[in-house]
């Protein structure tokens, strides 16, 4: 057999036999949910076999899919709960003021209805899960030969999943959260922080609040800010203002206000062709829309920011039809401006007085 054989092309007897075999398998296993997507997963697996994929690559593929399934099952019962992920060093001691910051910020967010997601390790992660309490904690741990076991708040219960690979772990630490708090840490924490900034900069992630929280009097994140501004922005490796989407603070109160206040008026967004629909809890006045157009003219590729009814594509999908809308055509690379626009609509006089919990992921 040729180990480099390709998967059966479309509209051939081989492809038809494969499709029929997959359909029979799904029927036999009583799979009724999202059968087309499940078929694609099976077809991809068959393709790996036909490609003569190496044993190592097959093991990576199988383990990654198994880990994602386990993580999806962990998160599924809590899909309606808003989540905030807290990152930070595994080496921080319990008596370090940073642990106190993590304890406080997670506790205050949990008290307001948020679930706290951590890497389920010691240090900052343990402090955060302790502050949130077991009923408001989810853990996504990594199996390392030298790392301590997961924290007592979530170890041994149904709120923890353990991963072999960092890339699957990072997916689950980021995918469902609607806010992030990064405390100082080493390579892993910096990797996670840069991942967030990259996803936001490239538009691969919906806008969310990101807080870089330090100890009182700390200089960790201000040093990070100087590096970014001097070297990355200064050498034109990122756009001016790319760091504006994060809040750097040593105040737990400011951190909580940033996470919760981001959702005061802003609810969600949707692309419809080249147009971006910003959904709001309260309709702005005509004067407020005019002010937004003046303030954010540089965000627009063409036209103006307009208040509209749901667009036909939204109506067809019954997509948040009860919410107010601002529709505009932005410059695709102006993500930092989009964060500033969201903050501006949250500060409008027409905005609700109280903050809301974000929509389900």
Q: Which structural class matches the secondary elements?
A: alpha/beta
In the CATH hierarchy, the architecture of the largest domain is: 3-Layer(aba) Sandwich
Please name the CATH topology of the largest domain: Rossmann fold
Cα end-to-end separation:
46 Å
Let me know the number of strands: 11
Question: Which sheet architecture does the biggest sheet show?
Answer: 7 strands, parallel
Shape: globular
The largest sheet has its strands arranged as 4-3-2-1-5-6-7
Report the uncertain regions: 1-6
Secondary structure blueprint with pairings:
Blueprint (H helix, E strand, L loop, with lengths): L12 H16 L6 H16 L4 H21 L7 E5 L9 H15 L3 E4 L5 H9 L4 E6 L17 E4 L2 H9 L5 E3 L4 H15 L8 E4 L6 H14 L12 E4 L2 H10 L4 E7 L2 E6 L5 H10 L4 E8 L4 H6 L6 E7 L4 H12 L15
Parallel strand pairs: 1-2, 1-5, 2-3, 3-4, 5-6, 6-7
Antiparallel strand pairs: 8-9, 9-11, 10-11
Helix pairs in contact: 1-2, 4-5, 4-9
